[in-house]
Specification:
38% of the residues lie in helices and 16% in strands. By secondary structure, the protein is α/β, with parallel strands linked by helices. This is Glycosyl transferase family 1.
Length: 335
């Protein structure tokens, strides 16, 4: 029997793109629709999907929101609920048998610029009653248009003598700011390593204490990814509500040797220190030691790079993320 996948045409295309790509790769036929999704509005938390095989309908939700909070209406609606940010300490998992952990995705480009623009206009005209913020809806499409295709995310061997970092300062996340500051200082102090980057400047210079670590201007997205590919080491620390950010998924996809502070939210399979990530607690001395080891011990660095790329391919790709949710719902992906 033929299978067709329907994606809510009111979805946030920027955040949903990862899963739409996975659905297309697995099922082939994916259509935007409003038929099954009248109760949902445009949001930046989740995308609802319907898989139709013959007369059978299976309802899936892909939750990419930063918060560990479950959307109860979406949970009631679906047959399986895939979520990036699940905090087992704050959510009683026994209450949600339909819930399953998916890996950290990130926005990817799906269509040509013309194709993106046409879909933005067409989807808005057919679903504008469910779009509370018109400007945001179109901003999602514009931003998605300027992302890279998934094929760009290829692993590149590194030499160990160059590190790039660019990250934001957060108004309410002082621990994150401090961890990142420790990392920047450590990178600057390791002998034989050229460091480039720092904190991105804020339009309002309203977070004191980091002026010496702040760049003069922001790095364009295209330059950012090129420099990350060349960087011997990358750094990940949870931000808002201990969430998995886009950086985590991108680092995995690029096969980067990652230094990371403890991860609190679930992953499909836990990361292992010394195998596919180098975990630290975040203090300045420990960060320095980690940077020094990963830049000087080439065998260890390449081991982390190779293993994290294998982890991504096995557990985090768009296809695998879709398969995880389909398996929870008892839907065959045809593989």
């Amino acid at each position: 029997m033929q299978t067709t996948v329907y994606v809510d045409r009111a979805c946030d295309i920027l955040y949903s793109s990862y899963y739409i790509y996975g659905l297309k790769k697995i099922f082939g036929k994916v259509k935007f629709s409003g038929k099954f999704f009248s109760q949902f509005k445009h949001n930046n938390t989740f995308v609802p999907v319907v898989v139709k095989t013959g007369k059978n309908l299976t309802k899936l939700v892909f939750d990419f929101g930063d918060s560990y909070v479950i959307d109860e209406a979406a949970m009631d609606w679906c047959d399986a609920y895939g979520k990036i940010n699940i905090n087992p300490e704050k959510t009683d998992l026994s209450k949600y048998p339909k819930l399953v952990s998916v890996g950290p995705g990130f926005a990817i480009r799906l269509y040509s610029k013309a194709g993106t623009a046409l879909r933005a206009v067409f989807n808005y005209l057919l679903t504008n009653k469910r779009v509370p913020d018109k400007r945001r809806f179109f901003a999602d499409y514009y931003a998605q248009m300027n992302r890279q295709y998934l094929s760009y995310y290829q692993k590149k061997e590194t030499t160990g003598d160059y590190i790039f970092f660019a990250g934001a300062l957060w108004k309410k996340e002082e621990q994150t700011n401090q961890y990142r500051a420790n990392y920047i200082r450590a990178c600057k102090n390791v002998d034989g390593v050229k460091f480039e980057g720092g904190f991105a400047p804020r339009s309002r210079n309203d977070i004191p204490g980091y002026d010496d670590l702040t760049m003069e201007e922001k790095v364009p997205m295209s330059d950012y990814l090129t420099k990350i590919k060349d960087s011997a080491v990358v750094f990940n620390t949870p931000v808002i509500l201990d969430c998995h950010g886009w950086k985590l998924g991108e680092f995995m996809a690029l096969g980067k040797a990652m230094i990371a502070t403890p991860i609190k939210n679930l992953l499909p399979v836990p990361l292992e220190h010394g195998k596919n990530v180098h975990f630290i607690n975040g203090n300045e001395n420990e960060v320095f030691d980690a940077v020094k080891k990963l830049t000087s011990d080439h065998s260890y660095r390449h081991q982390i790079e190779n293993n994290i790329k294998e982890y991504f391919n096995a557990h985090v790709t768009p296809e695998r993320s879709v398969e995880i949710v389909c398996e929870k719902a008892g839907v065959s992906s045809g593989k």
